[in-house]
UniProtKB/TrEMBL annotation, chain A:
TM stretches of this protein: none
Protein name: PaaI family thioesterase
Pfam family, one: 4HBT
InterPro entries: HotDog_dom_sf, Thioestr_dom
CDD domains per the UniProt record, alphabetical: PaaI_thioesterase
Gene3D superfamilies: Hotdog Thioesterase
Family matches, as SUPFAM superfamilies: Thioesterase/thiol ester dehydrase-isomerase (SSF54637)
All copies of domain Thioesterase, residue ranges: 54-128
UniProtKB/TrEMBL annotation, chain B:
UniProt keyword terms in alphabetical order: Hydrolase
Source taxon at top rank: Bacteria
NCBIfam families: unchar_dom_1
InterPro entries named in the record: HotDog_dom_sf (IPR029069), PAAI_dom (IPR003736), Thioestr_dom (IPR006683)
Protein name: PaaI family thioesterase
Segments forming domain Thioesterase: 38-114
UniProt-listed Pfam families: 4HBT
Length: 145, 128
């Protein structure tokens, strides 16, 4: 059993930006070869970036995916350790449907001494019809110089 | 220039102008944009960059009439941790095409020449 408790950590996220957006735990598998974590972002009118269409801004989805992929890194490492986002790219395949909760799934597919490589997808009900794909890297701040 | 969207209010953003009239977005530090203790959340920085990029694009489009703007790709590079102070961001439209706009945005705190993050965005435009 890994030493990073995903559900317990997610419950602590009420503070800060993720809590402000209402991001909560959805599902995870910390023992898979590529551990993954899913978080949920409920639809909220104050996150709308396009008032005409009622579509939420991309910022909340970046936050969701940054957090889901971060937690996948800690699940893979088996512990929490500080890291900093180096870069994150998001491809928007389609707009999120207004009113629907967005589920973000993050995976850590490679870990080196100083860098974690992550990827993920976001969907709003059907994983086979994703709204976004992400790829990113984190610098591990506790790595030996 | 349209009014700022609800998400800009969530982040606490205010609109400023540089000497040429181009928009600059300012985000005060507060608990709602906090990531790890003492630092801004990368997602909040991304949100600030996005709002700044769209403001720059609307500013550029103002002379040509309105258009709907949809993000296609967003790539964010994080250079420095965001500390406990106001962060500003501005966008530059590098190409304004008929259907595609390329926008770069940077975010800084004390010194505009020392950005904390930068982003490249490609947007799909539907002209009115």
């Amino acid at each position: 059993m890994k030493g990073f408790d995903v559900k317990r950590f997610a419950a602590l996220l009420q503070a800060g930006h993720g809590g402000r957006l209402g991001i909560v735990y959805h599902d995870h598998d910390g023992t898979a070869p590529e551990p993954w974590v899913e978080l949920a972002l409920p639809y909220a009118a104050d996150q709308v970036g396009d008032p005409v269409r009622g579509v939420i801004a991309s910022g909340p989805i970046v936050t969701l995916m940054d957090m889901a992929t971060s937690m996948a890194v800690w699940a893979k490492r088996g512990r929490f350790a500080p890291h900093a986002t180096l870069d994150l790219r998001i491809d928007y395949l389609r707009a999120a449907t207004p009113g629907r909760t967005v589920i973000g799934r993050g995976e850590c597919y490679r870990l080196t001494r100083s860098v974690a490589f992550v990827r993920g997808q976001a969907h709003d009900g059907d994983p086979a019809d994703p709204i976004a794909h992400v790829a990113g890297t984190f610098m591990l701040l506790d790595a030996a110089a | 220039m349209s009014a700022l969207p609800p998400y800009a209010d969530l982040l606490g953003l205010t609109l400023e102008r540089d000497v040429s009239g181009a928009p600059i977005m300012a985000m005060p530090f507060n608990d709602g944009v906090l990531g790890r203790p003492g630092f801004l959340h990368g997602g909040a920085i991304a949100g600030l960059l996005e709002v700044a990029a769209i403001a720059a694009l609307r500013h550029a489009l103002a002379a040509e009439g309105e258009a709907t703007i949809k993000p296609i790709t967003v790539t964010i590079d994080y250079m420095r941790g965001g500390r406990d102070k106001t962060t500003r961001a501005a966008g530059v439209v590098t190409r304004l095409g008929t259907r595609i706009a390329n926008v770069e945005a940077t975010a800084w705190q004390d010194d505009r020449d020392r950005p904390i993050a930068a982003a490249r965005m490609n947007y799909l435009l539907t002209r009115a």
